[in-house]
Request: fold
Amino acid sequence: MSTPTLSFPNHFVWGASTAAYQIEGAWNEDGRGESIWDRFCHTPGKIENGDTGDVACDHYHRWPEDVALMKRLGLQAYRFSIAWPRIYPQGRGTLNQAGIDFYSRLVDALLAAGIEPTITLYHWDLPQALAEAGGWPVRDTAYAFADYAETMVKLLGDRVQNWSTFNEPWCVSFLSYQLGAHAPGLCDEKLAVQAAHHTLLAHGLALQAMRAINTGIKAGIVLNLWSLESVEDTPASRALLERVWQRDQGWFLDPLLHAEYPLLAWQEREPVAPQLQAGDLKLIAQPLDWLGINNYNRQLFDNQGQRLRPVPGAEHTEMTWEVYGPGLRHLLTTLHQRYPLPPLYIIENGAAFQDQLTPDGCVHDPRRINYLREYITALREALEEGVDVRGYFVWSLLDNFEWAFGYSKRFGVIYVDYPTQRRVIKDSGHWYAQVIAQNGIAE
Ligand code: IFM
Reply:
């Protein structure tokens, strides 16, 4: 084995990520309740090609094979999410033992394979019953979430140390309630802002409840963040970047890490400001054992303050997201300067390309390898600059259901042939296995 030219600290963790609705399928099996994503996908016109997560990667039945594949890649950690409606079909009340057994067996198999489970409690599949009671814009949903979180730690906390409450609260609120692109598909800024507040509140309540019954867990939250950059450096461009930062990222980071909403963004959103109760901000700002970051691309603005989409002359993935590794370094160093941070983990990073299974039985995806190399290199540079990042998880382990884009975007380092459910490790998967084995990148 060659010596890595770019090596990582001992104990740096290499993993892969997935999410329940995107891979599990079995949407109505073994007592699972309906989620907002089932309802959204079953509504004509919402998802490209009419795709649904009904079957997805059939991981619910094929998980032993998937754990074996993780072992072949040498993964040290696996981040997956729990489908809340598999545990509480109605969101609260009666527990579904079959759902608990599924995750319990998965955790045991991961541990037996030497793979550390990292659980996300909410990756967007709210029980439909709670949506009908008002969903995230309703304060009571936060309390239902905290009860569910406590239940999961009671059930699995003896074996699982790493927990995150939410994946990407920006998507849970703004993308889902203001931009209408994700379930439940509403377009109302006021609802979105209130939903954002309640996800943060739910996070705080859940951390308290989880830690009250198990002090040994390591708990955090995962945010989707971008490096914000401009083609020019002027007072106007700096003001714009600050405004966008506060509106999209500070809106979550500041309550979590400073126990306050960012002032400029609050003033801008005054007419739709969320209703807070006394003590909410203190509750939200529970100490974090770690903060997860999902990063795929940067946002670049021209000298008119318009976001450049696409960025002229740059390479883009199938999501029309710019490939720009240095953006990750810029994001990490900016966070380091702006906030008192707990240890960081990159919980999602990866790229969708048009992969094909070729007659040699392989999937040759050199563009994904280049993408991953570029971002992992940028991450290593951020470590050099003193940012405390403890691990990297590739998105995704498997090709899967990419929300409103259905199955049209392939993000996996493992190819899934959906008609047969055959899995094939892509070239990028073999490359990533080497990175893990060498704890770094060899040229
Ligand atoms: O597939 C999603 C994932 O569910 C959340 N983060 C971004 C990924 C790619 O769009």
In short: The mean pLDDT is 98. The longest helix spans residues 189-213. The longest strand covers residues 116-122.
